[in-house]
Amino acid sequence: MRICHAIAIALIVALTGPAFAVQPDEILDDPVLELRARDLSTGLRCLVCRNESIDESNADLARDMRILVRERLVAGDRDEEVIAFLVERFGEYVLLRPTTQGSNILLWVAAPALFLIAFGGAVFYLRGRARAKSETTGLSPDEQKRLDELLKE
Questions:
Q1: Cα(62)–Cα(110) distance, rounded to whole angstroms?
Q2: Mind giving me the DSSP string for 72-130?
Q3: pLDDT in the model for residue 24
Q4: Are residues 26 and 36 in contact, defined by beta-carbon separation less than 8 angstroms?
Q5: 44, 79 in Cβ contact below 8 A?
Q6: Residue-level pLDDT at 135
Q7: What residues contact 51, with CB distance under 8 A and at least 6 apart?
Q8: Cα-based distances in Å from 37 to 65, 69, 104
């Protein structure tokens, strides 16, 4: 019974880990601004943790970025201005979902293009194999005679 309780507590702590990322001293008094800050934080990448948002990360840099987002919002910046400021400061890598402008269009187009190329190659290969099988003929009369002799033995 104690083991079940220990496992349950461990699972609860593990699953609520991201909820502990935003510290109580970071939370804004204005619930509307806090909601905007949390919304922005979920779309920004922690530069330490890689594919984790700053809202979920416990890294010191993520905390600094969360505070920076809140400071910009309190200063009166719009969401787009906060994002632009962070992209200017940390680079476009800070966005969990990159933009579709400039050289990033290559990232968005490459996967579907490679899929279509691979699909076309597979279709071409399979059609070639199907044609090769249909072009083969049965045994020649000499081969059939030899096979019959071998089967009789």
A1: 31
A2: HHHTT--HHHHHHHHHHHH-GGGBSS--SSTTHHHHHHHHHHHHHHHHHHHHHHHHHHH
A3: 66
A4: no
A5: no
A6: 59
A7: 45, 96
A8: 11, 6, 26
